[in-house]
Design brief:
The chain has 3 helices and 11 strands. With 197 residues, it is mainly β.
């Protein structure tokens, strides 16, 4: 069963499992399939640097090792900033209820660079959200940074948008000009100098 987010709004908790939307689900996709002369599907493989081994797909993995070449578990790693201070780990949004207390305008919602969009299927939550747009801290998994999450109703249903604010500065409005129709336009005709041809 998919993990559920718990949204807390006006003293009531609503549970829903987010379904991530991706381009393949929306637009579909095409794939190029290589076959041999008998029509059998080919699989990819890698050749080792010394040309001694053929490594089938899935046979290579990345690993983190220490200075002595020993395997290091990712859970043991810590993140630090440029000054050497350990970075705080933000908990996953699945670990505790998400309080919906802050609403934003449509303009504030649109001034973001979106990283992910999730469909939220819960009719009671959708009714409680109504036409408001709620903002909250969102972190799909525990990490050193988090996104701003927005819960918004659309004609297609309730969606959670996750992204980062991108303030778009407006330099100036286009300057308007007026044309005086009564002003006589005088065309200046330069005399041709045929000696330059």
């Amino acid at each position: 069963m998919a993990k559920e987010l718990i949204f807390s709004l006006s003293g009531t908790d609503y549970a829903a499992a987010p379904v991530k939307l991706d381009r393949k689900k929306i637009y579909g996709w095409s794939a190029l399939v290589a076959t041999d002369k008998n029509g059998e599907v080919c699989s990819s493989a890698y050749l080792s640097p010394d040309d001694a081994l053929i490594i089938p797909s899935g046979g290579l993995k990345q690993a983190t090792v220490d200075d002595t070449g020993r395997w290091v578990d990712k859970a043991a790693l810590k993140a630090y900033d440029n000054d050497g201070n350990e970075l705080i780990l933000y908990p996953s949004s699945f670990d505790a209820p998400i309080p919906l207390t802050q609403t934003v305008t449509t303009e504030q919602f649109l001034d973001n660079d979106w990283e992910a969009v999730y469909q939220i299927v819960n009719d009671e939550l959708a009714a409680a959200v109504g036409e408001a747009i709620y903002k909250f801290d969102f972190n799909y998994r525990e990490s050193t940074n988090h996104n701003d999450g927005y819960l918004i109703n659309t004609p297609s249903g309730l969606f959670l948008f996750a992204g980062d604010p991108q303030p778009f500065e407006l330099v100036s409005l286009a300057e308007q000009t007026t044309i005086d129709e009564n002003e006589e336009v005088i065309e200046e005709i330069d005399e041709l100098d045929f000696s330059m041809f």
